[in-house]
Write a structure and sequence with these properties.
Helix content is 90%, strand content 0%. It has 139 residues and is mainly α.
Length: 139
């Protein structure tokens, strides 16, 4: 009887050790998978942070180059000079005051349209990185 109890005790302790080993193995595997997922999320977060920083830098450069008060003042000055130049050319060609004004407005409008086109091209270049490689790395 003692041998049977000893054998049952050994069998129970062996089963307990096997269950404990299986549980620890599963837990360790799950922990490794979680750590791998955390690492992948960190890589994605870093890529997203870099993309956001690049976009903020491009937007700040765009504001500085195209939207600041100094740039608006330059645009106004160029429009005034284009108006004056167009009016002077019309006056030299013998145009009336109304014709001089219309030619001047036309020259100013042409200059401002060129500037708006350049601004829109710059904004399009700023938006382009959103579809570029930095965000493709996230997928």
């Amino acid at each position: 009887m003692d041998k049977l109890i000893e054998m049952a005790s050994t069998l129970v302790s062996g089963a307990f050790i096997a269950v404990l080993a299986a549980w620890l193995t599963n837990r360790s595997r799950n922990h490794q998978e979680q750590q791998a997922e955390i690492g992948a999320l960190r890589v994605q977060a870093d890529a997203l942070t870099v993309a956001v920083a690049e976009l903020q830098g491009a937007a700040a450069a765009n504001r500085l180059l195209w939207e600041g008060p100094a740039e608006r003042g330059r645009s106004f000055l160029l429009a005034v000079l284009a108006f004056a130049g167009g009016a002077a050319r019309a006056r030299i060609a013998g145009g009336t005051d109304a014709q001089c004004g219309l030619v001047g407005f036309g020259q100013a409008a042409e200059l401002l349209s060129w500037e708006r086109r350049a601004t829109k091209q710059t904004v399009a270049a700023v938006r382009e990185p959103l579809a570029g490689p930095p965000l493709r790395r996230l997928r």
